[in-house]
Amino acid sequence: MTRQFNAVDLEYLRNLLAYEPDTGVFRWRRKRNGYKGGVKPGDIAGTIHDGYVCISVEGVQYRAHILAWWFMTGGPIPDGFEPDHRNRKRNDNRWINLRLATRSRNNHNSDPSAANKSGVKGVSFDSSRGQWLARIIVNKVRYDLGRFDDFADAVSARRDAEIRLLGENAAETALSAAGYAPRAQERQKIDPNEFRRNRSLKIRKTNTSGYPGVRMHKKSGLWHARIVVRGKEISLGYFRKFEDAVTARKQAEAEHHGTEGK
After folding, report:
1. What is the pTM of this model?
2. 116 burial type by CB count under 10 A (0-12 exposed, 13-18 middle, 19+ buried)
3. pLDDT tens-digit map of 52-92
4. How far is the C-alpha of 208 from the C-alpha of 189, rounded, in Å?
5. Are residues 259 and 193 in contact, defined by beta-carbon separation less than 8 angstroms?
6. pLDDT at position 182
7. What is the C-alpha to C-alpha distance for residues 149 and 131, in angstroms, rounded to an integer?
8. Do the two domains 7-101 and 194-257 of this chain adopt the same fold?
9. Residue 237 pLDDT
């Protein structure tokens, strides 16, 4: 269990523990008997649980960053707020690394989920258009920030939105590609136009004509040519001859993707 702030508890905890603001470390002030011989004065207090430093006193579990706030301010944490680690490292409890944030804004400063392939929260790859999509959700409202050919531009858009909408509680989003997921690094090397061109030329399994974007329209008995550009399908017309439909498709490929097709 975790106990709420109490002035009597704080005084008792201060007699047992010493907090070092520069290092974020808590040390025991007194000898305490217990598991594996207990602890001596000066020993570092706490163990890691789910990334957080947790300190157990008289059967009560305290998270060290909560204790740090109590020790430094001498009072309770304001309603609706919780201490947040600026650099996202849960065990870095230096005073300079702690700040108050709402639960919603604290969540923005968490690491990307396991499903995220870009390495940056709110940035994903739109494979249908060959572009990077940036967005952000604040107070249950989603803001679409646009699609970008360049990965760094999408990250910048996300970062700017965090600063604009979250202020000082914005996440520490770095623009270096070094820390991003491997798949994101691979996609950064892909030219967006080349990606769309290759996707456009890919023949689907359901295609029976042998040429991408060309199919027989059964009701009319004509060949239908089409092309998809940035997620929008463009009809190129209906033709009696297969060769004419292919020609129309190739001309559209040259116009929109810079290639004459196969």
Report:
1. 0.51
2. middle
3. 999 999 888 999 999 999 999 998 888 888 898 888 889 99
4. 33
5. no
6. 44
7. 5
8. no
9. 93
Domain segments of the chain as ranges: 7-101, 107-190, 194-257
> Which tokens in the block code for residue 229?
């550009």
DSSP-based three-state secondary structure for 1: coil
CATH top class, domain 107-190: alpha beta
Mean pLDDT score of the chain, rounded to an integer? 80
- β pairing state of 25-28 and 17-20: antiparallel
Beta bridge partners of 103: none
Check: CB of residue 95 under 8 Å from CB of residue 24: yes
Q: Specify burial of residue 139 (Cβ count, 10 A radius: 0-12, 13-18, 19+).
A: exposed
What Rg value do the Cα atoms of the chain yield, rounded? 29
CATH of domain 194-257: 3.30.730
Q: For the domain 7-101, what is the CATH code? A: 3.90.75
| Residue the block writes with tokens 């009701």 | 219
Express each pLDDT in 187-245 by its tens digit: 555 555 555 555 555 666 677 888 888 999 988 999 999 988 877 889 999 999 999 99
Would you call 124 helix, strand, or coil by DSSP?
A: strand
